[in-house]
Design brief:
With 342 residues, the chain is α+β, with helices and mostly antiparallel strands. It contains seven helices and nine strands. The N and C termini lie far apart (115 Å).
């Protein structure tokens, strides 16, 4: 990895020199815009909308458009007067529990590596922060922009998470939040059963980008001159009409998936118990009789099976006894004949 910034963590009177690295990278396939007929690259020129002349990069400034359509032009000299920190410091402002920070505020992630003689204070702050169970709230200036951030420990390394300012997060103002939507207890119980059935430890390695893999196959086929075959898409299911039926079917599908993957049975047993509880609740709410009949039928079936087994055993014993008697009689006949002959 190549560092993209150098600075220092300012922690009280302690200064820790560090290098900053991008902690993540996008694996998206990059495309160029080309002419469809001959594959030539598409080029863009910086042209002024007023005189139509091409403008050199050195003559380009930043402009802010007013509601009236007028333009306010800002030069490099204007931007240099801004109170942006140029001290290249990561200032620790406070410490707090990690759960107090909403993840929606996180923007980008960076690794921090100690530089030169900063290894010991780096490790000291790292161990102390990790033992406290807290994170450090910091302020840092990167790429001409001042941001809040969070310092946390991951795999023995400081991770700087830059954050959005609170006014950069939009409010979730949707009409359905003001509507009164009734959810039945049995529906909620079935949803909880589905959640329990699908609960597992998160392992990101078991997921992959199927779209990117298919796109790479298309590119490889183009290079090899093979026929490009579009991958089959799974059928898209529409919205569920019967919520309870959809939840019940989802629970069964999750059970089959778990069984195929060799998952442990406790989650399935819990789901079955929950489903049974839901079925009982549904019967109670509808007020339909039938529990006694069902129990009677179950008992009758069990008794019938027991009687059949007993009959089979009895038949076996009777057959054995009759076979013994017939063998005794056949053994006595030769004895009698021998006596008469004598």
């Amino acid at each position: 990895m190549r560092s993209i910034w150098k600075g220092a963590i300012s922690f009280g009177l302690v200064t820790i020199p560090v290098k900053l690295y991008s902690a993540t990278q996008q694996r998206d396939i990059a495309f160029h815009q080309v002419h469809r007929t001959d594959g030539g690259r598409i080029r863009y020129r910086r042209v002024c909308s007023i005189d139509g002349q091409e403008v050199d990069y050195a003559d380009i400034a930043k402009g802010f458009e007013l509601p009236t359509g007028e333009m306010v032009v800002l030069t490099d000299e204007d931007l240099e007067r801004l109170p942006l920190s140029t001290s290249r410091r990561i200032d620790v402002l406070q410490f707090c529990p990690a759960e107090q920070i909403d993840p929606i505020l996180f923007s980008r992630s960076y690794y921090l590596e100690p530089e030169g003689a900063g290894s010991k204070p780096y490790v000291l702050l790292r161990d102390a922060l990790e033992a406290s169970g807290r994170v450090a709230v910091v302020k840092v200036a990167l790429r001409q922009r001042e941001s809040l951030g969070v310092l946390r420990v991951r795999d023995g390394v400081f991770v700087l998470e830059t954050m959005l300012w609170p006014d950069e997060v939009r409010a979730a103002d949707f009409p359905f939040l003001d509507e009164k939507i009734d959810v039945r207890p049995q529906e909620l119980q079935m949803a909880n059963s589905l959640i329990d059935t699908m609960t597992a430890d998160f392992d990101p390695a078991q997921y992959h980008d199927a779209y990117r893999e298919a796109l790479e196959q298309i590119i490889e086929a183009k290079v090899a001159g093979k026929e490009v075959v579009a991958p089959e898409r799974p059928p898209e299911e529409g919205p569920a009409v019967d919520l309870m039926a959809a939840l019940r079917a989802s629970v069964e599908a999750a059970k089959r998936s778990r069984a195929a993957d060799g998952a442990a049975a406790p989650a399935e047993e819990a789901a079955e118990e929950a489903a049974a509880a839901v079925g009982g609740a549904a019967t109670a709410t509808t007020g339909k009789p039938g529990k006694g009949k069902a129990a009677g039928k179950a008992k009758g079936k069990a008794a019938g099976k027991a009687a059949e087994k007993a009959a089979e055993k009895g038949a076996g014993k009777g057959a054995g006894k009759s076979a013994d008697k017939s063998s005794e009689k056949s053994a006595e006949k030769p004895k009698r004949r021998a006596r008469k002959t004598a």
